[in-house]
Here is the input.
Amino acid sequence: MSILDNELKKRRTFAIISHPDAGKTTVTEKLLYLGGAINTAGTVKARKSARHATSDWMEIERQRGISVTSSVMQFDYKDHIINLLDTPGHEDFSEDTYRTLSAVDSALMIIDAARGVEDRTIKLLEVCRLRKTPVVTFINKLDRYGRAPLELLDEIESVLNIACAPVTWPIGSGQHFEGLYDFNKKAALPYAKDENQSDWIDLRDLYADPRFEKGRSDLIDEVELLEGAGNLFKTTDFLSGAVTPVFFGSALRTFGLREMLDTFINIAPRPLVRPTTTEPVEPSESSFSAFVFKVQANMDPKHRDRIAFLRICSGEYTDGMQCHNVRLKRKMKLGGAIQFMAQSREATGNAFPGDIIGIHNHGTIQIGDTFTEGDNFMFSGIPSFAPELFRRVRSLDPLRNKALLKGLKQLCEEGAAQVFNFKNRGDLVVGAIGMLQFEVVAWRLQHEYSVECVFEAVPIKVARWLESSEPSEIEKLEKHSPLNIAVDGAGKLVYLAPSAANLQVTIDRCPNVTFRATREMLGQQP
Ligand code: G4P
Here is the structure.
């Protein structure tokens, strides 16, 4: 087996998706702990007290403060190398989350056993389903009273439209949580606060064990029912994204997570084939290729450098290698890459498909960029979504207008917000998915570019990117509605409509123009 094959076999790259408070942070920390990457004592608690002392806005700062080190975490577990990609918890930053999901091969969905399927999970799972990303489910907080497990599976199946295949099953919950049953082992693990115990009890011996006194008769009925229904786990259905294997447990008590992780490393896909504008790229191809899914400003405002996060898709990264930036159509030396461990960043001399490396740059590298060893394809599937909120932006000091433009351009390249320049009005409009994005833009313009800005209401409700095989059709539209046409940060034409009704009338009037709600972040020319 070649070195590359061997490295591919070991790698698992995934993200955690969940509604806020379902336990994403706790699960992340416990996975790192199981992998030996952190000593968990006190970390969750410290994070909690920090959070309670802060407002939403402080939370963003805090997240920004730690996100460079914590947004990607690599750790080892049983001869595997796991790349865990963090996604912002707040829904206002969902674009960032969607882009991160384009860089993973699988996802772990966490559901709170008492709350079941929640809003944000529905949206995130939709994205996974569109991409056919295999999803593993962990139903959390069994140490608290939760809903009946069969009811939770029903809800996942009906609301999220994905079939469930339980791998473990809870025996009671809350005060009566007695442990987990494992369908493969055909044995039960009693609930214990000592996470290192592994005292599996055979199903036949359950009646003699007082630790399962309350839950065993329900368990036996449920096991019979589930095994009889024949919907237990099959890897092929999982890899196609049709079925999610389901695990139960308590992240807080590190109970049930080890069983999930042991199965996960065996069933989760190794680095997958990636779609491009030409042929799909196999990870085992020896020629290096990677794409950028995230750009983050470095925390030190004195040094305006940024870190571009590259997901490696094929070949091997070696320090100082010459690469082709397909968008810029020029060669660039890729060097000084950093990899992100649980608590630190480390310089790395080489990295393989599935890995995420960070490259320092001064704004040359953008989200959506593809790096190859000479090929001209670009990776596809890195989305930008039409914003839903719009504000006109203005510098309080007219002499800082140039700095405002520069700052907005750079924030836009980082994906922090979107900016639209009206062709015929001279206005600048910022578009966002959530209100907090405006706060972040204002704060960063002030602190990083010394621009105090104001946001003003603007009569725009919907944005759609324009495309047509006949350029004259778009010209006609521009002539007819000059005040609705703007150019986005990547130079693409956008129709900004004052209402959904106006958009519909315009769509009806221009049958040869496509109005897109999403745009691929590809092929952006400098
Ligand atoms: P998030 O990142 O998805 O937002 O969730 P996070 O891990 O921060 O967890 C949210 C809350 O749920 C935390 O409590 C956390 O301690 C708790 N939690 C996570 N997993 C479990 C679990 O398995 N069992 C129990 N009982 N709780 C869990 P918090 O917000 O600090 O509040 P508090 O309940 O500690 O006061």
